[in-house]
Amino acid sequence: MAILVAVKGWDPAPWVERMRARLPGRDIRAWPEDAGSGGDIDYVLAWKAPAELFSGLGNLKVIFSLGAGVDHLPPVDRHQDIPVVRVVDPDLTDRMTEWVVMQVLLHHRQHLAYAAQQEQKRWRDLPQPAAKDVRVGILGLGVLGQASALALASLGFKVAGWARSRKQITGVECFAGNDQLDAFLRRTDILVNLLPLTNETRHFVDYAFLGKLARDGALGGPVFINAGRGATQVESDLQLALTDGTLKAASLDVFEHEPLESENPFWVMKNVILTPHIAADSDPESLSSYIAEQIMTFEAGGKLANVVDPATGY
């Protein structure tokens, strides 16, 4: 029963080392160096692995996605009978929550304006609204979205969330479905996007979408924060909105094409905070324990947790 670590752009060694520690005696391999013929591989730990890899794994039982989403996997694999397991881990959730809260606070506490004043050696305090007067909206209320919503609510922000289906979260106003999307946007000063990438959410956030955000808020204009998936936003529309005043500012961790091209206008926009897709890094130490436990449960006849529904893509 071989386990293959198939990652692109990452060093597979830490994953192999930790999986061997948690499943001693198992045959743990790294793609592409020692994948072998593929016929004896039962499990794949994948991040941006190519489609041709999976086509040669005739004995494959489970695919474990090494990221919060599964859109990095070849689409064909989600329509086979092989289960794809999402990562739902406290460490990853905590990392995402930290990043989201940090970005909301940076905009709330006017970090960009103070950074500009620092460059000018200008000492001037700015009027500061209270958290209770700022309306944050979370797009996507899965595990990550719910954790971020609760953390922001605990700081006093007026938090709401939107999802395709109805959710109930204490202290968070919940909107659901297309019928309630506009109402959700109209009450939102800071929009946090944590949607997965599916056929329905691809290019979901466009210019018209951003134009529906609240314009009467305490921050003087709406802010967009994206740590979900880059392809859920139309980047040319986002750049226009940041230029013409439709958006006051943005924090972006994800982009449709990564790494971000050097000529991309986002790099030089004074009202944009960029990070290189690090909001919720996948930690081999933490996630290997999660995956090892799933494998042992599965082999003992138990059910896998957090299996992706091929119909929804999450």
TrEMBL record:
It holds the Pfam family 2-Hacid_dh_C. It comes from the Bacteria. The keyword Oxidoreductase applies. Residues 102-279 form the D-isomer specific 2-hydroxyacid dehydrogenase NAD-binding domain. The keyword Acetylation does not apply. Keywords: NAD, Oxidoreductase, Pyruvate. CDD domains: GDH_like_2. InterPro entries: D-isomer_DH_NAD-bd, NAD(P)-bd_dom_sf. Gene3D superfamilies: NAD(P)-binding Rossmann-like Domain. GO terms for molecular function: NAD binding; oxidoreductase activity. This is Glyoxylate/hydroxypyruvate reductase A. It comes from Stappia albiluteola. The lineage of its organism: Bacteria, Pseudomonadati, Pseudomonadota, Alphaproteobacteria, Hyphomicrobiales.
